[in-house]
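hi! just following up on the protien thing from before. the input was this:
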Amino acid sequence: MTTAFEPIDLGGRRLTSRVVMAPMTRSRAYGPGAEPTELMATYYAQRAGAGLIVTEGIQPSPVGQGYPDTPGLHTPGQVQAWRTVTDAVHRAGGVIFAQLMHTGRIGHPSLLPDGLVPVAPSAVAAKGQVFTHEGPKDFVTPKELSETEIRQTIADFAAAAQGAIEAGFDGVEIHGANGYLIHQFLAPNTNQRTDAWGGGTEGRIRFAIEVVTAVAEAIGSHRVGLRISPGNPYNDMSEDSLGEVYTALLDRLAGLEVAYLHLMEGPDRDLTASLRSTWSGTFVLNPFTYPDATGPDALKLIEDGTADMVAYGALFLANPDLPQRLAAGGPFNTPDPSTFYGGDHRGYTDYPTLD
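and the predicted 3d structure came back as:
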């Protein structure tokens, strides 16, 4: 029986355990440069005992920013500032991947420079509001991406991945979940295109495939992970034919031999099992535990073969030394869900506090 505290090979890199620190939006990159700070270096170094750290979402381009004070990886200054973070994690013995997150229609013009507006597969506004420096604001109708702009966005992901490696990251995770841009291409309510980037299953999965392919070509597939969240309604998402769409996506990605697939699970464990059987590579699971944070019982998912690695969010916030506490059976500090950034996420993710 495999346990969570046995090493695992991830793209040729030996991880000391199968406990993953999940990516969690933080909004700590204060200042006009959207650059990480010393506080962020301390935060990640404190959690370097994870088998793998996946950072907060990092925008690959200026228009990819959807929340205030989130960091980027698209300028030389940002690349250099991230080196402070990766050096701190590596000195502490950790392994860290940068999560590349383009928020698409989720955002607001007040968060963007130079008169930019949020973009999306189709000009369909999300219901709800986003937090800005001026307070909550309604989501706006996004600009529909042209063919040229889609190609540029794919190139932006690849360039940001190259910047991540230059900054000292061990790899990148592409955020294809939670109602952000890649997820927006996958879902019929946000992708109403009739060209080659929409329509049926093949069109809707195309953007995700081309982003992953471009990033893999830029930095090597062994340094690339992908996160998905089939059926996650967060950010006004609505999906159908989950098995068909996501099985087709995984089938098309299989030949790339990327480092891992990271599933943010919904309430359907049968879908998880189906995707697990489809995916031949390393399978990272952020299990559905709503309304509770993921706890020590989730380690059994590694022992019974449901997943190769398990990702923890809220419990890692309250317990920076979480792997050691899990191995010892506790004790655990209790996360405070009332302070999670972003409010009710329907149990699909754990977000930290704004302090």
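The longest strand covers residues 52-58.
Residues 147-166 form the longest helix (20 residues).
cheers
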